[in-house]
Specification:
With 206 residues, the protein is an alpha/beta fold. It contains seven helices and eight strands; from the N terminus they run βααβαβααβαββββα. It comes from Agromyces agglutinans.
C-alpha cells in the first residue's frame, strides 16, 4: 500500500506568509496552475485515486488532479485537516514567532495530537482502499507531523514542504514507513534530521 501525501496548491495567505490552519482559504490562480502542472509529474506514478482533507483548498487541488490524471476522486477524511492554530490564524508567520515564541497560542491544537491524527487517517484511507495507490491532498503542518511521528524525529527538524510537494509513505511488514519527503528519498534526508536533532549543521548529500 502506497499513499502519497500532497500539500495543496497556493492560496493568497500562502503568498502573504500568513498562518492558515483551519481557516478555509481557497486556492488562487497560481495554486490551480500548480495542481495542473503537478498532474504532469504524477502521470507515470500508477495512481488509482485521489482523496483529500475537507478544506476547500485541498479539495479543489484533489479535483484538479483527479480530472487531469483521469482517475477516481475519492472522499474527504477529517483526519487530513490542517492543525488548528487558534488566535494565530491569519497572522503573518514572522509576527507569530514574536508574539508566541513558546508556541503557547490560545486555541491551538496540541502538536502531539496532529501526528496521531495523521496516522489514524492513513489507517482509515488504507482500510477503505486496500492495495491501491492513493494521492491524499492535505496540508503542510499535518504532513510534516505525520511523517515525523512515523520516523521518530521532531517535526520542527523536517524541511518546509512546498505546495504540491509529494511525500510517500508505504505500508510494509504491518507498519507504515516514510519513503520520500517532498520528493527527496528519506534515506538521503535522515542524516540531516539526525544532525538537526543533535544541534549541529548538516549538509544533504547530492
Amino acid at each position: 500500500m502506497v499513499i502519497a501525501l500532497i500539500r495543496h496548491g497556493q492560496t493568497d495567505w500562502n503568498r502573504e506568509l500568513r498562518m492558515q490552519g483551519r481557516t478555509d482559504i481557497p486556492l488562487n490562480r497560481t495554486g490551480r496552475q500548480q495542481a495542473r502542472d503537478a498532474a504532469l509529474r504524477f502521470a507515470d506514478g500508477g495512481w488509482d485515486l485521489v482523496v483529500s482533507s475537507p478544506l476547500g483548498r485541498a479539495r479543489e487541488t484533489a479535483e484538479i488532479l483527479a480530472d487531469a490524471l483521469g482517475i477516481e476522486l475519492g472522499g474527504t477524511f477529517d483526519g487530513l485537516i490542517e492543525q488548528e492554530f487558534g488566535e494565530a490564524e491569519g497572522v503573518p508567520v514572522v509576527e507569530i514567532r514574536e508574539r508566541w515564541p513558546a508556541r503557547d497560542i490560545p486555541g491551538m491544537e496540541p502538536d502531539a495530537a496532529v501526528g496521531a491524527r495523521g496516522l489514524a487517517a492513513l489507517a482509515e484511507i488504507a482500510g477503505g482502499h486496500p492495495e491501491r495507490r492513493v494521492l491524499a491532498v492535505a496540508h503542510g503542518t499535518l504532513i510534516r507531523r505525520t511523517l515525523a511521528t512515523l520516523s521518530g524525529h521532531d517535526a520542527e527538524h523536517y524541511p518546509r514542504l512546498d505546495n504540491l510537494s509529494i511525500s510517500e509513505v508505504r505500508h510494509l511488514d504491518e507498519a507504515w514507513h516514510v519513503h520520500t519527503v517532498g520528493g527527496v528519498e528519506f534515506t538521503t534526508l535522515v542524516s540531516e534530521l539526525d544532525a538537526r536533532a543533535a544541534g549541529v549543521p548538516a549538509t544533504r548529500a547530492g
